Amino acid sequence: MYVIRRVYEVKPGTARKVATLVQQQGDAYSAADQRSEVRVYFNGGTVPGDNNRVYMEWTDETIDSPYREGLTLAPDAMAIGAKVREHVISQYIEFFELMTPAKMQTD
């Protein structure tokens, strides 16, 4: 099982707006059965940390290519993505292997 996290560096003052759009985008992918349920988070300025960063993460059994044959992207997600890009300075994606009880090693 993998945790996949997309990180958005956004223009100052736009984190909440981008987080809202990214949640809608993730929900569209989930509704189209192209992604598990997403979790979106950001710092609204009430706690220490970077105020210009938004995170979207989800889990998946495999890491598949977004260019794989037969994939039809959710139309709503594509339109929302265009709105998100207006506010994004840069973005990157991180991949993590999720520890499960079966994979834990004991001494």
The top level CATH class name: Alpha Beta
Separation of termini? 23 Å
Low-confidence regions: none
Average pLDDT confidence is 87
Summed up, the helix count is 2
By CATH, the architecture is named 2-Layer Sandwich
Total tally of structural domains: 1
Percentage beta strand: 25-35%
Give Rg in angstroms: 15 Å
Which helices and strands appear, and what pairs or packs with what?
Elements: E1 2-10, H1 15-31, E2 39-42, E3 53-60, H2 75-85, E4 88-97
Antiparallel strand pairs: 1-3, 1-4, 2-3
Helix pairs in contact: 1-2
Short structural description:
The protein has about 110 residues and is an alpha+beta fold. It is built from 2 helices and 4 strands; from the N terminus they run βαββαβ.
Give an overview in words:
This protein is of the alpha+beta class and about 110 residues long. It has one domain (about 1-65, about 70-100): Alpha-Beta Plaits, CATH 3.30.70.100. Helix content is about 25%, strand content about 30%. The chain has a 4-stranded antiparallel β-sheet with strand order 2-3-1-4, with helices on one face. The mean pLDDT is about 85.
Task: Name some characteristics of this structure.
107 residues; alpha+beta; Alpha-Beta Plaits; four-stranded antiparallel β-sheet; 2 helices; 26% helix
